[in-house]
Amino acid sequence: MNYWLVKSEPFKYSWQTFEKDGKTFWDGVRNFQARNNLKAMKEGDLVLFYHSNEGKEIVGIAKVIQEFYQDPTTNDTQWVVVDLAPVQKLKKTITLAQIKEDERLQNIGLLRQPRLSVMALLKEEFDLIIALANTE
Fold first, then answer.
1. In what order do the strands lie in the sheet with 118-121?
2. Which own/partner contact pairs does 121-130 have at CB distance under 8 Å and 24+ positions apart?
3. Residue 136 pLDDT > 90
4. pLDDT in tens, 102-134
5. pLDDT value at position 135?
């Protein structure tokens, strides 16, 4: 299994909307590295859902339910989407500030490439974020 993080501005597509929809295709990716990350996603992979710009926090866990296919919002065949479904809202959100303060997360893609909208995570990074979200 692989682990990922996707970013969405909550005013465009929030976790709450995602939960209400029950699933979505992850579209609008127009960066080749992010697109390659979408192509690498496998059914069953877990994905952290990050609210960017407003909130700047990881709010939930999703999973890949359909591997990549042509982005239906464009005729340009170089762009793809994957289908995601919500798994659960985090008990406690994990903010960008918390991530920056945690020595164990200093190499996470969110800090190294902050503009990238779809990024891989190490299992250890994913597990640590989930552990932080579950602490009181």
1. 24-25, 80-95, 57-70, 46-51, 3-8, 118-121
2. 121/3, 121/4, 121/5, 121/48, 122/3, 123/1, 123/3, 125/3, 126/3, 126/46, 126/48, 128/102, 128/104, 129/48, 129/58, 129/94, 129/99, 129/105, 130/61, 130/90
3. no
4. 999 999 999 999 999 999 999 999 999 999 999
5. 85
Distance of alpha carbon 78 from alpha carbon 110, whole angstroms: 25
Q: Are strands 46-51 and 3-8 parallel, antiparallel or unpaired?
A: parallel
- Separation in Å, CA 119 to CA 10, 20, 113: 18, 24, 9
- According to DSSP, the residues that pair with 50 across neighbouring strands are 7, 58
Q: Which CATH superfamily is domain 3-133 in?
A: ph1033 like domains (3.10.590.10)
| pLDDT score of 123 | 98
